[in-house]
Please model this.
Amino acid sequence: EQAKRLAEQRAPLVSDPEAAAENYRWLAKAYDGLKRPEQAYRAFEQAVERAPAAEENYLALSVFAMDHANPAFAREALGRGLGLLPNSAKLAMQMGLCWAMEGDFGNARAYFDRAAKADPRWSLPLLALGIADLQAGEAQSAGEAFRNARALDPGDYRCYYLHATAIGRSNPDPAHREEMIQELKRAVELDPKQARVHTALGQAQLP
Model:
């Protein structure tokens, strides 16, 4: 409570827009933790006002909205951000997640694809795109997305595990089944603590 009061006093005095916005975001989270969502919302909006080109403001506001079961407002906040920052991969990625959480995988896929194109070196949008494809029953498209993610981040076990999952949903012939097993073995090597990967490998190796 004392830290919150200090932040309230300090926020209007910070001259640097980015620093001021960060202070308001911290204040908003403090208010939210105290079960004062209206004040939290006003603090988030003050952050946007101070630094309208800071993507962190819209990301934080969308998370706040989703935490309060208001996905429509989360999308509205992200839409505002994308209006100012149309090439933001993070905002597009978050928008895709918002749509996916509502079960709209068509819109989710569009935004994941947008995020992947905005930052071609980031593997996470490709993983999300592949998962959305799996949800839509498009196993072959999912497999391509996971292979592309694997090329970008060959040390991420998820690329191999999810690629194997996509192969398994494509009615694999013996050669592809062996490829699926090898992908799962590689996933286990990269992260031996993942129980679901061990389970999938054991099932794949059954006669």
